[in-house]
């Protein structure tokens, strides 16, 4: 990668974040009346559903705090992070300490789900916010919430299983994947890294042992309790964007550990495998689902191009290139960067579309909903900008 | 519609049913080893998932029994219907009398869901089978199961709500819609029609009062307990295929009641409204979801063309034409018939694809899964064939 290319990309990501993505959300999503943020925005930023997704409250709060911690201490970012923390503290939690998935504009609970993702995103919000402010209470809340997540995940019966565990016991890649990044962010905010290191090691080892399948050169989404291959629709399914996300969390950890060769190998192997499954040779971009045996996928929208797998692949390829110097990754990065920037940005109203058809045509023009908010895109812009700053030195 | 067109269509539906759809399923889905049927079939009929969906066990058993009752008493159809009933009786039920959603090939439970659709499809299977055989036990089982469904639907708390009823109380069109057809089929098999008539009346009245919205010229999928409009993603969503299915159930009831003008008006109004929302002016076919305010739909695959909305629209337009003589319906029938027969049939291996992109390209080539089986397509072929027989007289 030439110094010129590095500079060009750095500008694209930095300016995209500071002059497009952030202003779009800050202008449209902040609820000054009831607190928190409304993320269900139409193409032009109009609120089309006032319900508040708890995932996104945590994610945006994490982003704002992180920018404050790593870019510059802008008062606006900290004020908005506090705005998010206040809403999460006031309206995010049920009486049992677990969190809701969706609340009304006023903060009254609409839906609670069995999964622990609201909790992981609140953990990173509280952790990054405590680092920004020195707020010891937020630090303790983040740690307590992480421990609650661990307790729920490791205590049989606390999370009711979706499938009968006697006939179809299984576990999802999503869990170790999200725990790695949650522990990585929490570790930056707490005094003792032991617990976080322990869980990062444990989760990477679990992915390597149970989810990586050399016989398919693939990372599966769902396996049996001991990594057994489940030869049904769900067990054969791969989500390349998801696995590639796990790849860069692992690469990031390798980098923090002085380019630990074993972690580096795991990260690049996952990326190599899942790039091959995920990159659409015909239309470009990372496809949503594939079947490890090449059979039809049950999810009929399997071939769509969502924004976030592209974001994850842009980070993963750039990080792999920085760490290995292998030109293959620079080439992949250029492919996915160019494809994504051709189809996803909305030149008229800003930000990215989220949901494209396989060939890049827009399916739904909205900018945000319960799943899409200021997270994957700005995280990519921020992470790649900072990577390229290192590479430009 | 000319007599020649009537004869042509009659042949298409009858021969499609008897020489294509039925042989495809009978050849590939019958499990002689463990009983019941395996419906997860690839394009060529290969089983790609051995799990058994309980919905489809009931639906195919209903179809086979109904063909035996209305087409001719073929021993093969009755034998296969018994094969389905045996599996349903042996493996379909949990200890509480409710039914599973998905079981293993051997019949061990994989998944149970809160909704009552497994039960409604088993009800119509048992009812039609009892009519075919005179099996009084099956007749009683069908009636008992219908009463269990009613008890679950009308007893607060028995079915845990997905959303918090204090903040987002709602009810789904699917419930009155499925109860109408379930009661219609059960009524043919039981001695006293009172209970079934009562529920048919109640459900059609509920759809008219609470789900039909003249201000949008639309039937909504989800409304508040008293028909309140819920101005969120879910509350604005329409599924034209679903509403059109309810339309022809209502028209069918009107026909049985000597062309009852009020029911006829409800059925044609729903069809008129939802054809307008559903018919894709650009590519043809019935689109999956629309938003009543024209805002983006949250389901990103909203513009796909599934097989079953086309099946329902083919029935509804033909039945409306027969009952009203309005040429508009003959025209719509021709439009949807021609579009569906252009894109859905698989000339090489038979049957229809289920999941097409908006423009008719295939998304997933499989022929069956937990939701697609021998039901909507053969029901359309059978119902339209019989209608056209009446019209040919």
TrEMBL record, chains A, B:
What would be an example GO MF term here?
isomerase activity
Q: Which domain of life is it from?
A: Bacteria
Q: Pfam families, from UniProt?
A: GlcNAc_2-epim
Which biological processes are named by the entry's GO terms? Answer: carbohydrate metabolic process
Per the record, the coiled-coil ranges are none
As for family, the record states: Belongs to the N-acylglucosamine 2-epimerase family.
Q: What is this protein called?
A: N-acylglucosamine 2-epimerase
Q: Which organism is it from?
A: Vecturithrix granuli
């Amino acid at each position: 990668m030439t110094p010129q290319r590095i500079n060009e990309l750095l500008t694209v990501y930095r300016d995209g974040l500071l002059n497009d993505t952030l202003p779009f959300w800050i202008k449209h999503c902040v609820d000054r009346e009831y607190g928190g943020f409304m993320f269900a925005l139409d193409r032009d930023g109009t609120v089309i559903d006032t319900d508040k997704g708890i995932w996104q409250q945590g994610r945006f709060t994490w982003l704002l705090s992180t920018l404050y911690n790593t870019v510059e201490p802008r008062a606006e970012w900290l004020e908005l992070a506090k705005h998010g923390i206040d809403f999460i503290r006031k309206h995010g939690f049920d009486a049992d300490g677990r969190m809701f998935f969706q609340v009304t504009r006023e903060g009254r609970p609409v839906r609670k789900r069995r999964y622990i993702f609201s909790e992981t995103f609140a953990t990173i919000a509280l952790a990054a916010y405590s680092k920004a402010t020195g707020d010891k209470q937020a630090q303790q809340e983040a740690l307590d919430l992480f421990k609650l997540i661990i307790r729920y995940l490791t205590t049989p019966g606390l999370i009711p299983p979706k499938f009968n565990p006697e006939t179809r016991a299984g576990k999802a890649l999503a869990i170790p994947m999200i725990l790695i990044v949650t522990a990585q962010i929490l570790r930056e905010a707490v005094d003792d890294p032991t617990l976080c290191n322990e869980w990062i090691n444990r989760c990477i080892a679990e992915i390597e042992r149970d989810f990586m399948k050399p016989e398919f050169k693939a990372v599966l989404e769902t396996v049996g309790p001991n990594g057994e291959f489940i030869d049904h629709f769900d067990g054969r399914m791969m989500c390349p964007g998801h696995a590639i996300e796990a790849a860069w969390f692992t690469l990031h950890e390798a980098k923090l550990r002085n380019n630990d060769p074993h972690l580096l190998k795991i990260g690049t192997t996952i990326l190599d495998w899942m790039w091959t499954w995920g990159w659409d040779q015909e239309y470009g971009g990372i496809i949503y689902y594939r079947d490890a045996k090449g059979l039809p996928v049950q999810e009929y929208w399997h071939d769509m191009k969502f924004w976030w797998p592209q974001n994850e692949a842009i980070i993963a390829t750039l990080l792999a290139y920085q760490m290995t110097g292998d030109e293959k990754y620079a080439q992949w990065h250029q492919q996915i960067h160019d494809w994504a920037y051709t189809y996803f940005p909305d030149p008229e109203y800003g930000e990215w579309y989220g949901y494209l058809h396989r060939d890049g045509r827009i399916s739904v023009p909205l900018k945000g909903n319960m799943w899409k908010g200021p997270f994957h895109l700005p995280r990519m812009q921020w992470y790649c900008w900072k990577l390229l700053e290192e590479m430009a030195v």
